[in-house]
Amino acid sequence: MKYWIYSSTCVIVVICGGSLYLYKKRKRKSIAQEPQLDGVLALMKEEKNVVVKAKKLHPTMNIHFFRTLLKLMKLSVPGIFSKAGGIFILYTITLVCRSLLSLIIAELDGRMVVSIVQKKPKLFIWCIFQWLMMSVPATFVNSLIRFLESHLALCLRTELVGHLYRRYFSNQVYYKVSNLDSRLNNPDQCLTEDVKNFCDAVAHIYSHISKPVLDLVILTRASIHIDVVRGEVTSLPLSLGAMTITISAFLLRLLAPPFGRLVAEEAKRHGFLRFVHSRVISNSEEIAFYDGSKIELSLLQQSYNALVRQMSRIYLSRLWYVMVEQFLMKYMWSVTGMCMVAIPLLLPDSEAPTHSINVISSRAHAFTTKKHLLISAADAWERIFSSYKEIVELAGYTYRLSEMLEVFDDMEREEYKTANEGRLQTLDNSSLSNREVREIPALAEIVETEHLIQLENISIITPNSDFIVSDLSFKVEKGMHLLITGPNGCGKSSLFRILSNLWPCYGERVHKPPPELLFYIPQRFVFTVSL
């Protein structure tokens, strides 16, 4: 028997070691191929004007994460009397009912064992009937918890999406994000997948934290009450349990991978892959003319492979972390739980020294009830510890959404960040310079008139601080016609971007009608879709 145990252990160690060696070898090979992909991604990002971020907060559990989470929750739950607030209250009540049902079922299990020990068939049948009757509300409450969790995530998403959509389509933020700023590369990814993942994670984590905490309070109180009623010592088992939980928490916190950064990077690569797909769709005619299908296919494959490598890193990190987590929570905690249940019953003075059927039944009842309570408590602790990595993943989604909201705020304040500058460009700052070290003039004064378009010493400057036209002045009154000609890049379309407030206007003064009195015929037509 010992030989079989030793040989099995050696085989398991060899398999684990070989798997780890093969994985590291494959990882080194993939890292060697990474620069080629990074070069391609760098070229793609340069085309998209992606900024190299100077100083950036990492997605992790810190004070910034909790502040941002609180801000997003205020947007998702406008008030306690809102739909999301009502579902939160109903969800909490359902979780409380489930914890109380667990306590009742534990008591029924103890009575069932007593009826078996005392050989009372009628009592056993009655306990079975009660147990089955309690299973009906228990199963309904379990199903209701899942339903409310999904519905809560949907309500949070509805409120948050409504707020983000209003921000996105106000003050032409949708245009500025894609054309004047380069920090938010994939707003569609943030407004869809990231919002969904964030709301699902919040609803799931709320259930995995609030219910276990409530279970621990109720079950611990019930277990202590049983020991006090029986006159058994409770300090030693509680100390043993607290010590085991503390050591487990320390080890899991020490060995936990940076799930927040990993998930944020995965979402980023998801968005970049979507951007490459949309780029092919929007430039399909040009790609077909230049016969660039092979290059675009290579870019798609390399972007997808980058996503696969990142997901593989996450899966491997979870493999070793879950292994340690399961070892501590399933095996170490099981041994600790058995000791906590057995110690009060094994002490010589815990009960009167008699072997009557009543004493045996009482011990069996106490053992079964406390075992059920400890199993439920261990499950609650396991969900609390397992929710740590989910909270860290939530930090990644929270970071993505906070970055998007920060960009929206900057767009409303007309503060842009471009790839050429690498730092924040404020329109009110007159110390910026273009490639020729020319001073950018102050923002022009906008005067709204009804029948006049007049520019007084206006400079047309791109968001990258490149001068196109300097000191442009003209006047167009009602009934006049003006034809502007010139080569590509001379500022014909840029003039209309200034008149429609798409680009910032520098210079002295602009007289123009309000936007509702101006009508433009763009070079490319966009037709709305019917629903």
Automatic annotation (TrEMBL):
Q: Name one GO molecular function term.
A: ATP binding
Q: Which GO terms describe its cellular component?
A: peroxisomal membrane
Which parts form a coiled-coil structure per UniProt? none
Q: What is this protein called?
A: ATP-binding cassette sub-family D member 2-like
What sections of the protein cross the membrane? Answer: 6-23, 123-145
Q: What keywords sit in the KW lines?
A: ATP-binding, Membrane, Nucleotide-binding, Transmembrane, Transmembrane helix, Transport
**Which ranges carry the ABC transmembrane type-1 domain?**
89-329
Domain of life of the organism encoding this protein: Eukaryota
The answer, when asked if Transmembrane is one of the entry's keywords, is yes
Task: State the family it belongs to.
Answer: Belongs to the ABC transporter superfamily. ABCD family. Peroxisomal fatty acyl CoA transporter (TC 3.A.1.203) subfamily.
Q: Which organism is it from?
A: Oopsacas minuta
One record GO biological process: peroxisome organization
Tell me one Pfam family matched here.
ABC_membrane_2
